[in-house]
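User: Here's a structure from my thesis project, written as structure tokens. My advisor, Dr. K., wants to see whether a designed sequence matches the one we expressed. Can you design one independently, without my sequence as a hint?
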């Protein structure tokens, strides 16, 4: 097998933390693979709403990590395995994989190649293209960890998903339906409502225009069993207020206007924790029938700064960088 480690690759990196102007297209060495890692030829990189936080040094500070500059940005993506470390037995060269690379000193997904711990990657579900899987890893694991590990959602329960047309939300709607819950989806805008209607939610409303509390009471007159919040503020407060006594709310850390505790219900925060079992469960649920991972807009690698700027605008699903 030809070893890539002495070759260079196109990447978008920063030499120090800061604003969008720090992002520069570069030629950098292809990272070397350790025993528990895989080298991936990147097809698609997700552009997450948290990527500016990475660029500004937020994750480095939060996790007490020292960045290895030039730091290649990008926390998730998908592609094809190019090399595997000696200790990796579940993946092989040529496999289509998706995965998570948060503040890896060897760099992230805004590059032609990236190195990932094998445990942070998984085979792409058969139903999905490599392109679509490029925006799945972080939001898919976050959606599933919210529904399954945090809310412990059961078949037959009612759940409100706030931000249902967003990255986590559109995946959570479909996963919750696969888990046989009743789903009230709160999307953003007319385009968000039209998009989420085709994802199988039992009821979809526009959370920017409609009364969330009223819709929730109509949907679950005795109160909702659970809510998953991917946005905060007044809409989140209304969703929590629609819970039944003993109901559960969950939000991933990072949601702004942090949801507050309320008497009589549980409000839980959590972080996505990628591991092989979670990826296996996510893949199993996705492969249970048609599943849509939606990319609203793609950008070339060299236009990564423009992609991060576009995060500020309204869109449904996710943004992505395409490498070829
Ligand atoms: N801790 C973790 O492990 C973890 C992992 C992943 C993500 N996160 C965090 O989770 C949050 C969500 O991530 P994401 O990728 O899903 O982001 P996203 O794609 O921006 O999704 C949030 C969605 O909420 C919508 N929204 C806002 N207010 C609304 C309202 N009143 N009614 C209906 N919809 C509304 C937004 O619509 P507009 O387009 O109109 O704004 C957007 O579609 C972010 O804060 C992110 O940092 C945390």
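Assistant: Designed independently from the structure alone:
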């Amino acid at each position: 097998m030809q070893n890539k480690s002495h070759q260079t690759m196109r990447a978008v990196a920063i030499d120090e933390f800061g604003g969008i102007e720090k992002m520069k297209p570069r030629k950098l060495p292809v990272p070397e693979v350790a025993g528990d890692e895989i080298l991936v030829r990147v097809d698609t990189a997700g552009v997450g709403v948290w990527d500016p936080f990475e660029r500004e040094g937020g994750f480095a500070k939060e996790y007490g990590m020292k960045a290895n500059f030039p730091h290649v940005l990008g926390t998730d993506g998908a592609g094809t395995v190019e090399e595997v470390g000696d200790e990796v037995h579940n993946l092989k060269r040529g496999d289509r994989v998706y995965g998570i690379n948060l503040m890896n000193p060897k760099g992230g997904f805004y590059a032609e190649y990236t190195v990932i711990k094998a445990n942070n990657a998984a085979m792409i579900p058969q139903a999905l293209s490599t392109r679509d899987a490029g925006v799945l890893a972080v939001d898919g694991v976050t959606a599933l960890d919210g529904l399954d590990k945090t809310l412990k959602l059961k078949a037959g329960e009612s759940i409100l998903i706030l931000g249902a047309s967003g990255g986590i939300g559109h995946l959570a709607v479909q996963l919750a339906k696969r888990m046989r819950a009743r789903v009230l989806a709160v999307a953003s805008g007319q385009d968000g409502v039209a998009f989420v209607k085709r994802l199988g939610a039992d009821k979809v409303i526009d959370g920017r225009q409609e009364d969330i509390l009223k819709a929730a009471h109509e949907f679950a007159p005795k109160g909702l069993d659970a809510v998953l919040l991917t946005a905060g503020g007044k809409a989140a407060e209304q969703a929590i207020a629609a819970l039944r006594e003993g109901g559960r709310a969950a939000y991933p850390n990072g949601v702004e206007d942090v949801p507050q505790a309320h008497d009589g219900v549980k409000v839980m925060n959590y972080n996505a924790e990628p591991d092989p079992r979670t990826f296996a469960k996510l893949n199993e649920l996705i492969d249970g029938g048609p599943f849509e991972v939606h990319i609203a807009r793609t950008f070339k690698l060299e236009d990564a700064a423009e992609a991060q700027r576009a995060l500020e605008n309204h869109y449904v699903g996710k943004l992505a960088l395409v490498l070829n």
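When you compare it with your expressed construct, this may help: Residues 48-50, 138-139, 142, 163, 165-169, 186-189, 207-208, 230-231, 235, 252-255, 271-272, 314 surround NAP (CB under 6 Å).
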